[in-house]
Amino acid sequence: MSNSRVNVRWVAEQAGVSPATVSRVSRGSAQVSPELRERVMRVIEEHGYRPNHFGRALAEKRHGSLGLVFPGLSGPYFSELIQGFESEALETGDQVLLLSSHYRSDTDAKVLDLAGRVDGMAIHAGTVSEAMIERVSQTIRVVVMAHKAGPAHASVSTDSGTVGTLTRHLLVEHGYRRLAFVGTPEGSPDVTARWEAFLAAHAETGARPPAGPTLVGLAQADGAIAAQKLLDSEEEPPDAVVCANDETALGLILGALGRGMRVPEDIAVTGFDDMPMAALVQPGLTTVRQPVRELATVTARLLHAPLTQRDGDTLLTTDVVLRGSCGCPDRPSGETGRDATAGGDS
């Protein structure tokens, strides 16, 4: 038979299945039984069928694509998110279209354009206006990462409140009295939650918090800037610094070491994420471990729910990981095994 006559409906008739099943098999979806997959593939291979993706989108009223909107794509956090999201999309045969906003003023317009080319969209908190999220949610399913659902159909975030546990550990177990917080809450819901947990721990222990956070970004270079602000001023430097993420913590440690200071003897430093480098530096970085890959996979999974379904807020647990940078005993570099956590052996 001429290949021009071989289309999705013809293949479906020959295989005794629906056109939707042929489409799922052709894009590698896992939602097809092995028996049906083999039957459809036999017809496809014998007659040289090549799917028309545009026609498939029209027939199924879907694009076979998911959108992923981030403020930026640099750094280990976003790299891990992308890998987790793509691994889940691979299971369902979906393509992933990435949009990095870089906080541009035209982000809302770009998101609206992307919405016309995908079946669902994951949006990292702080990148898109609430009004645009509500607008896009009228036509496709939207899941927000690292914040509450709001006008979206669902949200998935990790528990930033664990920063409070870490802060109490610094104040009570180590007796540090002058703590600083490095990060910019404005425009970042997760950093805001970490700053609030930091303040709450001070209130619970009766300690006096700093007047405000040390305002920098989330890159390692911003940690070096934080070191300059905290260590080169005329004011007495802090005993310990709670950073909003590991990258700034590592940058701050480098800044402190470059000024002849010792960590943790002269200044203790903690982070958030538990990126691989946190366990490799000396001393090891005390931090909060968050399940970044799970954050992404759960988000991608929720995008396949019906448009009318609202799943609310999913909160993933986090754990304090105690290492040498806060003053706890540090394991030798490269040693594996369970890390001590606050409340356990330290």
Automatic annotation (TrEMBL):
HTH lacI-type domain boundaries: 11-60
Gene3D superfamilies in the cross-refs: 3.40.50.2300, lambda repressor-like DNA-binding domains
PROSITE patterns: HTH_LACI_2 (PS50932)
InterPro entries xref list: HTH_LacI, LacI/GalR-like_sensor, Lambda_DNA-bd_dom_sf, Peripla_BP_I
A Pfam family per the record: LacI
Keywords linked to the UniProt accession: DNA-binding, Repressor, Transcription, Transcription regulation
PANTHER family: HTH-TYPE TRANSCRIPTIONAL REPRESSOR PURR-RELATED, LACI-RELATED TRANSCRIPTIONAL REPRESSOR
Name by which UniProt lists this protein: LacI family transcriptional regulator
Record organism: Streptomyces daqingensis
Gene label: rbsR
